[in-house]
Write a structure and sequence with these properties.
By secondary structure, the protein is α/β, with parallel strands linked by helices. The protein is 33% helix and 23% strand.
Length: 432
């Protein structure tokens, strides 16, 4: 039995890929560990991220750390898929390379114990339904990937080239995975894909996220169902109705709008919509809805007029949660050669202005929760008795926390109404 080390980089979608790789190795008799410096570890598989330059730098650092540690390094995921044989030339010390669509080949490649390169020029990423994930993180919540790839061609994004076209998983397979997670004690499942609102367009010939939510609602021992990465199109009346009717579906929508000005949205090759009207309509249709978005500052051609429009949009819309990224120039994208490019200092200044504004908005929103009871899920209970949770308005890792005072005997995954007693810009304190 070989001991295989695993290093993970990137988003929750990439995390599931890492867990699938681990599951495939374990099924075939390998011993998988996160302790990559263990002297018994011969191979280290590094699942890389290549969404933006900073993410690539983190992945590359891990690669060279492991090479220096004398490990046989296998590079997988988005970095080799993006750079292909150019990466092999840059890092000849690596033992092997495989892309985003080759999870099923990893066991054979390691058993051969020969240097290899296996990266498809045109990846078709289909979820390996018969591989059981070996979960790296186990707690009150767990992610479920409902689709692979993406059909959109946003001007700044390399994902379609790295992951191929949109491929939905069958509803019955997703429900079966959710049942297994619930039986293990997971209270909250979090549905993810590059674009969750398009779920089913290929498999069922129409957006079918609403149908999936109704089927998941039949799982009796499940607490919450949360959905991330909803593209602003394909918000059908049926999906809005499902959000409104299904109690288990958390009233939280993560909608990466990216910008507000029509000219920039057009330059981004995004849907040109009135973002404020779109969000207000959702809020009017779904009571107590929390809306999260992400925005990009400094996209090529963005001038002061465009940024002022974006700033005013954020001020007017008052998002419950918001993230901001500076535009990252990525090779192979439409925006890479788009002129004029915005200077780094301007991108950063605009990002900070939006973040400062959002800080004020979040402070006011949280101040209005004092004395109110808000549904919350317990995440951890520390040795000193401190109970840490998340409200329904908060997704793991990206949003805030609620610190809970209680005499109740709690376990991670419990869901309670917590009365808010204090607040900061992003976190809450409360009692049961």
């Amino acid at each position: 039995m070989k001991k295989i080390g695993i290093i993970h980089h990137g988003c929750a979608k990439n995390l599931i890929d890492t867990e699938l790789i681990s599951g495939e190795l374990i099924k075939n008799g390998f011993d998988v560990t996160l302790d990559v410096y263990n002297q018994d570890v011969e191979f280290v598989i590094i699942n890389t991220c290549s969404f933006i330059f900073d993410a690539e730098q983190e992945s590359v650092k891990s690669i060279f750390d492991m090479i220096e540690a004398g490990k046989k390094v296998i590079i997988t995921g988005c970095l080799p898929q993006k750079h292909k044989k150019h990466l092999k030339k840059l890092i000849p010390e690596a033992f092997g390379f495989f892309g985003t669509a080759e999870v099923d080949k990893i066991v054979k490649l390691i058993k051969n114990n020969k240097e290899f390169y296996y990266v498809s020029d045109n990846p078709v990423c289909k979820y390996p339904e018969f591989v059981e994930r070996a979960q790296i993180t186990v707690g009150s919540s767990s992610y479920i990937k409902i689709a692979e790839g993406c059909n959109y061609k946003c001007g700044y994004c390399v994902i379609p080239k790295l992951r191929g076209s949109y491929i939905s998983r069958p509803i019955e397979n997703i429900v079966d995975e959710a049942k297994k997670l619930a039986d293990k004690g997971v209270s909250e499942i979090i549905l993810i894909a590059q674009d969750t609102s398009s779920y089913g367009v290929d498999l069922y010939k129409k957006p079918s996220l609403d149908k999936l939510l109704y089927e998941l609602d039949k799982i009796e021992n499940l607490g919450w169902i949360r959905v991330l990465y909803t593209y602003p199109t394909n918000f059908t009346k049926g999906l809005i109705k499902a959000y409104r009717e299904i109690d288990r579906v958390v009233k939280y929508l993560d909608i990466p709008l990216q910008h507000s000005h029509p000219e920039i949205l057009k330059a981004m090759k995004r849907p040109v919509i009135d973002g404020y009207e779109f969000v207000q309509n959702l809020r009017s249709e779904i009571p107590n809805l929390a809306v999260r978005t992400t925005l990009i500052t400094g996209y090529p051609t963005e001038d002061e007029k465009h940024f002022e429009h974006l700033y005013n949009f954020v001020e007017k819309t008052k998002f419950d949660r918001l993230g901001v990224f500076e535009f990252s120039k990525e090779k192979g994208t439409y925006a890479y050669n788009l002129k004029p490019q915005v200077p780094k200092r301007v991108k950063e200044k605009r990002k900070n202005l939006i973040l400062e504004l959002q800080k004020e908005i979040s402070h006011k929103i949280n101040s209005e929760l004092i004395g109110k009871k808000i549904p919350s899920i317990i995440e951890t209970i520390q040795s000193d008795g401190l109970v840490i949770g998340r409200t329904y308005k908060d997704a793991p890792d990206v949003d805030g926390l609620i610190y809970v005072e209680t005499n109740e005997v709690l376990t991670p995954g419990d869901i309670f109404d917590v009365e808010v007693t204090s607040f900061s810009e992003y976190d809450l304190w409360g009692k049961i």
